[in-house]
Automatic annotation (TrEMBL):
Its cofactor is pyridoxal 5'-phosphate. GO terms for molecular function: adenosylmethionine-8-amino-7-oxononanoate transaminase activity; pyridoxal phosphate binding. This is Beta-alanine--pyruvate transaminase. SUPFAM superfamilies: PLP-dependent transferases. It comes from Nitrospirillum amazonense. The lineage of its organism: Bacteria, Pseudomonadati, Pseudomonadota, Alphaproteobacteria, Rhodospirillales. The keyword Oxidoreductase does not apply. It comes from the Bacteria. Transmembrane segments: none annotated. GO terms for biological process: biotin biosynthetic process.
């Protein structure tokens, strides 16, 4: 695949061969000919190797919620690596793992106070699905092994998350999928275009779950997994009443509800979790990304006391759950997470994000009427700007916006023909204005 670029000139003569890094979710053949590199970062700003400044409109990849290069996190990582670089957490542990689990459980929805550590959002997805299966087995309902995701959902790229995910491109090349998976419809309705915040009419939409239950039988269904606000597909905000109704239906049928809060956790929607913001408590809640401010890979699943106790108390003496990772609660990640939580709390960043939300919404919707814009969606400090695709070239228009904005000093993210925005929560009103003005400017002279 890379042959045609192997001979292309390197970015600068002293740089490594660009062909050796097979980049994830990247058009490698294009990138290797047109590399865009980031060399350093602080606060709201990335810098390229040539020293150009790029305003971060995406918190890296939805993860640097407290802004880049926070000294307290950097120090905590350095100190931890020098003190205890690694400790196994299989039949051993280190004190900070318990401290972090306690701190996390304090900001999770009430009752979700048992924490299982992973290293990424994908691992959190698969962990939560496996815990759901283990729970039903432990209570004598092992026939409940069907998993229900949602069209346009994203739960990472491992086999479990891929199967319950609903983004066609991520699935169709991999025909070995988990059996027994079904999907709800996504919540996007063209008639809701340009809605500010949540559209109306969610409860009726969630009733579709009753139809799936009628089809398969509740006795076969282990869990429903959704992102409270779908992020990666281009920011789909749950219509009013949708999550509440999913909760009612799952509870009535003994089905576990999993919220994948890998994006929405840690302040992105103006609260510690979207669960808190929407007032809907799932049985399991997946985290990653903002847990360490993106500095060290880490993820976690917050599990309800009931689910945890059911599995642990019914197990034969010995290991209760045959699942885990070498790096679960890695000491360096744990130190980074503790320092990150400290900043979130000390600086009141979740409340700050909430306070900025109206301003963010107004700025996002200023793009209504800009060329090619067919929808603007927003919630918390997330926004999706949907463009009409170029005939015969889906995604090309938004990709050009991404490249042009980068070259003009603003980092945006695109998925299909949707521009997805999620700045660090420390963003200022002036920086918000700069992000949307830059996009507007690029759109104005775009074919
Ligand atoms: C909701 C959700 N779940 C899971 C993931 C996967 O996370 P990771 O890339 O850390 O595996 C993502 C990544 O964007 C996500 O948005």
């Amino acid at each position: 695949m890379l042959e045609d670029v192997a001979g292309s000139p390197p970015l600068r003569s002293n740089e490594a061969d660009l062909s050796t890094f097979w980049m994830p979710f990247t058009n490698n053949r294009f990138f290797k000919k047109n590399p865009r590199l980031l060399a350093s970062a602080s606060g709201m700003t990335y810098r390229t190797p040539d020293g150009a400044e790029i305003l971060d409109g995406t918190a890296g990849l939805w993860c640097v919620n407290a802004g880049h290069a926070r000294a307290e996190i950097v120090d905590a990582i350095a100190r931890q690596a020098a003190t205890l670089d690694f400790a196994p957490t299989f039949q051993l542990a280190h004190p900070q793992a318990f401290e972090l689990a306690s701190r996390l459980s304090a900001i999770m929805p009430a009752g979700l106070d048992r924490i299982f550590f992973t290293n990424s959002g994908s691992e959190s997805a698969d962990t939560s699905l496996k815990i759901a299966l283990a729970y039903h087995l432990a209570r004598g309902q092992g026939g409940r092994n069907r998993l229900i995701g949602r069209a346009r959902g994203y739960h990472g790229t491992n086999f479990g998350g891929m199967a319950v995910g609903g983004i066609g491109g991520n699935r169709k090349g991999f025909q070995t999928q988990l059996p027994g998976v079904d999907h709800l419809s996504h919540t996007y309705r063209p008639a809701d275009a340009f809605t500010r915040g949540q559209p109306a009419g969610g409860a009726a939409m969630a009733d579709e779950l009753e139809a799936l239950i009628a089809l398969h039988g509740a006795h076969t269904i282990a869990a429903v997994i959704v992102e409270p606000v779908a992020g990666s597909t281009g920011v789909l905000v749950p219509p009013v009443g949708y999550l509440e109704r999913l909760r009612e239906i799952t509870r009535a049928h003994g089905i576990l509800l999993i919220f994948d809060e890998v994006i929405t956790g840690f302040g992105r929607v103006g609260a510690a979790t979207a669960s808190e913001r929407f007032g809907v408590t799932p049985d399991l809640l997946n985290m990653a990304k903002g847990i360490t401010n993106g500095t060290v890979p880490m993820g976690a699943v917050a599990v309800s006391r009931d689910v945890h106790d059911t599995i642990v108390n019914s197990a034969e003496p010995g290991i209760e759950l045959f699942h885990g990772y070498t790096y679960s609660a890695h000491p360096v990640a744990t130190a980074a997470a503790l320092a990150t939580l400290e900043i979130y709390e000390r600086d009141g960043l979740f409340a700050h994000a909430r306070a900025l939300e109206d301003h963010w919404e107004t700025a996002a919707h200023s793009l209504r009427g800009a060329p090619h814009v067919v929808d603007v969606r927003n919630f918390g400090l997330m926004a999706g700007i949907e463009l009409a695709p170029r005939p015969g070239a889906p995604g090309a228009r938004a990709m050009e916006v991404f490249h042009r904005c980068f070259d003009e000093g603003v980092l945006v993210r695109v998925t299909g023909d949707i521009i997805a925005l999620s700045p660090p929560l420390i963003v200022t009103p002036a920086q918000i204005a700069r992000i949307f003005e830059q996009i507007g400017k690029v759109l104005t002279d775009l074919a």
